[in-house]
Design brief:
By secondary structure, the protein is mostly beta strands. It contains two helices and twelve strands; from the N terminus they run E-H-E-E-E-E-E-E-H-E-E-E-E-E. About 5% of the residues lie in helices and about 45% in strands. It is globular.
Length: about 170
C-alpha cells in the first residue's frame, strides 16, 4: 500500500438482520429443494451501482472518478430491484484491485494480472451502503467494485468495476 492510507472506516452503521428459516421435507416425488433456496433461486437480477464520494468541510460530495491527492474517498453502493427499489437485506462486499503488492487499476484485474481483494463486508443499508476507503498522498488510480450477496427478491451480483484517480 504505497502512498495510500486505507482507513477501513465504516461511515454509516447499519442494523444486522439475521434471517433464519426452517424447511420441511418435501413429499415423495416432489422437489426437495428447501423453500428458502427456491426463493433465492427465483430472485431477479437487479442493478448494482458503485459511486464515489469525497469528504469536504461541509460533508460528503459525489464525484465522478477523480479528486486531488489526500482527498478522503468514500465508496457507496446502491443495489436496486427492477422497479428501482433499493435492497433492504443482504450484504455488500467492497473490493479493490491488487497486483504485485500494490493497488492497481481495474484493467489489471480484468486482464488477469491482478486479483480482487476484499476491503470490507457490511449489511445493506436501505439508503445506500457507505464505506470510507481512505486517501492517497501521490497521484494514482485504483480499481474498485462490490459484490452483493442477495437475500430476497434481488439476486446476488457484482457491480461494474470502476477506477478512481487521485491527481
Amino acid at each position: 500500500m504505497k502512498n495510500c492510507k486505507a482507513t477501513n472506516a465504516l461511515l454509516v452503521l447499519t442494523a444486522t438482520f439475521t434471517l433464519g428459516g426452517c424447511s420441511e421435507p418435501a413429499a415423495p416425488g416432489l422437489d426437495d429443494t428447501p423453500a428458502a433456496a427456491r426463493f433465492i433461486n427465483d430472485a431477479l437480477p437487479g442493478s448494482y451501482e458503485l459511486f464515489f464520494m469525497i469528504e469536504t468541510p461541509t460533508g460528503l460530495m459525489s464525484v465522478d472518478n477523480n479528486a486531488p491527492v489526500r482527498s478522503f474517498l468514500v465508496l457507496r453502493s446502491a443495489v436496486k430491484d427492477n422497479s428501482g427499489v433499493l435492497a433492504t437485506v443482504g450484504k455488500v462486499t467492497y473490493e479493490h484491485c491488487w497486483s504485485k503488492g500494490d493497488y492497481a487499476p481495474s484493467a489489471v484485474c480484468a486482464a488477469g494480472l491482478g486479483s480482487w481483494k476484499r476491503l470490507y463486508t457490511m449489511s445493506v443499508d436501505p439508503v445506500g451502503s457507505r464505506f470510507g476507503f481512505g486517501s492517497c498522498s501521490t497521484p494514482r488510480t485504483i480499481g474498485f467494485r462490490f459484490t452483493y450477496t442477495g437475500r430476497g427478491a434481488i439476486s446476488s451480483g457484482t457491480s461494474v468495476q470502476r477506477d478512481f484517480t487521485w491527481y
